[in-house]
Every structure is written in structure tokens, then in C-alpha cells.
Specification:
Blueprint lengths: L10 H12 L2 H13 L3 H29 L3 H6 L5 H43 L3 H7 L4 H20 L2 H27 L5 H9 L9 H14 L6 H7 L7 H32 L14 H14 L3 H36 L4 H21 L1 H31 L2 H9 L9 H26 L1
Helix pairs in contact: 1-8, 1-12, 1-14, 2-10, 2-12, 2-13, 3-10, 3-11, 3-12, 3-16, 3-18, 5-6, 5-7, 5-14, 5-15, 5-16, 7-8, 7-14, 7-15, 8-12, 8-14, 9-12, 10-18, 11-14, 12-13, 13-14, 14-15, 15-16, 16-18
InterPro entries: Na/ntran_symport, SNS_sf, YocR/YhdH-like
Keywords: Membrane, Transmembrane, Transmembrane helix, Transport
Pfam family, one: SNF
Length: 449
């Protein structure tokens, strides 16, 4: 007898969980710097359009397969056809998705651990515990193992508690806190000298760049990957949805929330960068580009906080709390992918599965920490640059070509009876069948060049 499956009990819980999965560290630091490097508001306009033309249809593919199968990614993809070879390919694709999600979580745990270190360091700095602050902000194997373990334990605790008492409960708490912190930090930062210059870069478009191929490809990649697509997280979350819920409406809400938070994050990060410049902090690299990614988070912004006097410590504490929450809401969705497989396919009790799999992923994180120069970049490229786009294509192809049209329509009618007469049904099947795979492959090809 298989283990009982959980289910989201409210639409709000699902939306917060799905948005939390999508709104990760990459969204908060990646989207704003992508915007600054690609024509400011021109990039925002293209991104918003492509989020609904590309990311939303691909999100719907995962949600509809997940809810139809009511199962983990392996079982879901292997059950869409009555042809053994197609089922075998689906099973293999699902297992590879589980491996990729686990590997992503292994390096994500390290990066999230750095956020925890700086969060703790903000607290120790406020009480003048200089030795502790120095240890927490100095890169070392011991520090990285400690912080990665703390983050892994938090993720494991939430997942071991199940869908309702773990994922839904904590997402419903953490996401409102994240959005509240984001708004408070924006209100403070935009009042600082130099912030208006950052807002101009972010909000005033250079419309001559809207049709630049590189800008379109960058926006396309950001739109697709910002929704946490390609490794089955949304498929698994979709499997926990009620049949009474309208998938097109829920998918649209999740997309709006995700792109909305990404946009709002830009209202914090870009002004903060120019406030830092006004305070004498270097925000451009040697090539003249805005510093992005980890260097922005761990070099530019801490330098800015140090120039803010007594308020700087509290701003730093709020900022790294924000980043830690963003990391945690994403990590729980990634751990759920392998845990759901172990619980359903191998009938392992959820707490046992969570501990075993979470510990194994932490062991991979430790291996990366001990071989950082060799493995960190390799694992990131293998998973996010190469594997994730191809898995996204595979899921779209399974939804568009393998999922029988009458069963697909029947599933979409659950919670949305008049779907057959809607514009969505007239357009989406073609999108997921042809256009989404081609656009994802175009993004993938561009990333390799």
C-alpha cells in the first residue's frame, strides 16, 4: 500500500508555495542586474511579455501533468502513454530531473549558507561581537560547512512535516514576511542620496534596444528560469492541487506574483547599488558593467551598509533575513522532488525519506565545499546551463505530444468547465507543443555561444 499523499488545503497556500519556489536568490539579485545590463526598462518590458508568452505556458505543462498523475515526476511522466518505450523514456527523464533537482539543491545550500552567515554576522555586529563577525564573514571550510548544515536542517525540517504542515504552512508564513521586508527596505533605500539615479536606470527605457537579439534571449531565459521550471518542482506542487482549482487561473496568479516580486526586487537592488556608488563604493567591474551576483550581495551591499551609520546594522539584518527566506522557500520545493519520489514509489515514511535524502544532498554539498574550485562551477553549469533547459523541453514535449488531447482537456476542465471555449485552450496546446520547446532551445543554444 502506497503512502497517503498530501494536498494543499487552500489556494493561498499553493500560490505562496509556488511563488516561494520561483522567487529565489537568482530572482532577487539576477533580475535587477540583468535589467541594468540590458537597457533598463526596455528589458523589463520584454521580460514581462515573455513571462506570459513563454514561462506561463511551460508552467501550465508542469501543473497539468502533475495534477493529472497525482504523483511524483517519475511516475507522472511514465504514465502518460501506453507505449512501453515512451514510458521508459519518461521514467528516465523523471529520474534525471530528480538528480538535477538534488544537485541544484547541493550548491544552492552552500550559497544559502552564506546568506545565513551574513544574517548572523549582522546580529553579532550589532552587539559588537567582533570575533564572531570576523569568522562569519571570512570564507573558510569550517564556516561553509556550519552554515550549509544549518540551512540543510531548516529545509529538512519543513519537508519532513509534510505538504500541509510543512510546505504550505511555512510558505504561507515566510512569503508574506519576505514581501513585507522587501517593501520596508525599498522605503528606506529610495530615501537615500543616489537612489533616484538607480530608479532612472531601472524604470526609464532605452526603447532602441527592445528588439536586440541578445536582450530578447536574456529576457527569455530569465522569464523561463525565474519560475523554477524544468526540474519538476512545479509538477510535484501541481500534484498536490485540488481538482476544484482552475489550473489556468492559478498558473496566471503564480506568474504574476513571481514577476511582480522580481520587479519589486529591482526597486530595491538598483537604487541600493547607486546609493552605494554615491557613498563611494565601487559598483562597476573592470569592463564597466554593473557588478552582479554574489559579488554584489557580499561585497557591494555590505560596504553600503557600513556607510549607513547606526541604521546600517539593522538594514543589513533585514536584507539578509530577506535573502535567507527567499533561499528557504526555493529549497523546500527542490527537496520535495526527490522526497516525493521516495515516499510514493518506494513507500518510505516521509520523515525517514527527508532525513536520508537531505543528509545525502548535504554530503554532496560538503564534497563541493572541500573541492570548491573544481566542483562548484561545474555543478552549476551541468544543472542550470545544460540540464534544466533540456528537461524543460522534455516536459513540454510530453505535455504537447504524449499527453492525449482528450485527457488533457478533461484535466483542464476540472475546476474550469468552460475552458474549451476560452482563448487559453485555442492557443496554449500549440504553444506547449511547438513554440515553447523551440524558444527554450533557442535560449539554450544562445547560452552555449
Amino acid at each position: 500500500m502506497s503512502a497517503p499523499r498530501g494536498q494543499f488545503t487552500t489556494r493561498f497556500g499553493f500560490i505562496m508555495a509556488a511563488a516561494g519556489s520561483a522567487v529565489g536568490l537568482g530572482n532577487i539579485w539576477g533580475f535587477p542586474t540583468q535589467t541594468a545590463s540590458n537597457g533598463g526598462a526596455a528589458f523589463v518590458v520584454v521580460y514581462l511579455v515573455l513571462a506570459f508568452l513563454l514561462a506561463y505556458p511551460a508552467l501550465m505543462a508542469e501543473l497539468v501533468i502533475g495534477r493529472h498523475a497525482r504523483a511524483n515526476i517519475v511516475t507522472a511522466l511514465s504514465s502518460l502513454s501506453d507505449k512501453p518505450i515512451i514510458n521508459s523514456i519518461g521514467r528516465a527523464t523523471g529520474f534525471y530531473g530528480v538528480i538535477v533537482a538534488s544537485l541544484i539543491l547541493s550548491f544552492y545550500t552552500i550559497v544559502a549558507g552564506w546568506m545565513i552567515c551574513y544574517l548572523f554576522a549582522s546580529a553579532t555586529d550589532l552587539v559588537s561581537a567582533d570575533t564572531a563577525t570576523q569568522w562569519l564573514t571570512t570564507d573558510s571550510i569550517d564556516r561553509n560547512l556550519f552554515s550549509s548544515f544549518i540551512f540543510a536542517a531548516l529545509t529538512l525540517f519543513i519537508i519532513s512535516s509534510g505538504v500541509q504542515n510543512g510546505i504550505e504552512k511555512w510558505s504561507s508564513r515566510l512569503m508574506p514576511v519576505l514581501m513585507g521586508l522587501l517593501c520596508l527596505l525599498i522605503a528606506y533605500v529610495v530615501a537615500q542620496p543616489g537612489a533616484m539615479e538607480g530608479l532612472k536606470v531601472y524604470l526609464l527605457p532605452d526603447m532602441s534596444r527592445v528588439f536586440e537579439p541578445s536582450l530578447i534571449i536574456s529576457a527569455m531565459g530569465q522569464a523561463f528560469f525565474s519560475l523554477s521550471l524544468g526540474v519538476g518542482t512545479m509538477l510535484v506542487y501541481g500534484s498536490y492541487l485540488s481538482k476544484d482549482d482552475s489550473l489556468p487561473r492559478l498558473g496566471a496568479i503564480v506568474t504574476v506574483v513571481d514577476v511582480g516580486i522580481a520587479f519589486i526586487a529591482g526597486l530595491l537592488i538598483l537604487p541600493a547599488m547607486y546609493v552605494a556608488q554615491h557613498a563611494g563604493v565601487t559598483i562597476l567591474d573592470e569592463a564597466g558593467n554593473l557588478i552582479g551576483g554574489p559579488d554584489m550581495i557580499f561585497q557591494v551591499l555590505p560596504a553600503l551598509f557600513n556607510t549607513m551609520g547606526g541604521a546600517g546594522g539593522f538594514v543589513a539584518l533585514a536584507f539578509f533575513a530577506l535573502m535567507t527566506i527567499a533561499a528557504l522557500t526555493s529549497s523546500i520545493s527542490m527537496l520535495e522532488v526527490p522526497v516525493s519520489l521516495a515516499v510514493e514509489r518506494f513507500n518510505i515514511r516521509r520523515p525517514v525519506a527527508a532525513i536520508a535524502i537531505g543528509s545525502s544532498i548535504f554530503a554532496i554539498s560538503a564534497l563541493i565545499i572541500f573541492n570548491f574550485g573544481t566542483l562548484f562551477g561545474f555543478v552549476i553549469d551541468l544543472t542550470t546551463k545544460y540540464s534544466e533547459p533540456l528537461l524543460g523541453v522534455a516536459i513540454c514535449l510530453y505535455c504537447g505530444w504524449i499527453f492525449k488531447r482528450n485527457l488533457l482537456l478533461k484535466e483542464l476542465k476540472e475546476g474550469h468547465e468552460d475552458i474549451e471555449d476560452s482563448l487559453f485552450w485555442k492557443v496554449w496546446p500549440l504553444y506547449v507543443k511547438v513554440i515553447c520547446p523551440l524558444l527554450i532551445l533557442a535560449t539554450f543554444w544562445h547560452s552555449l555561444s
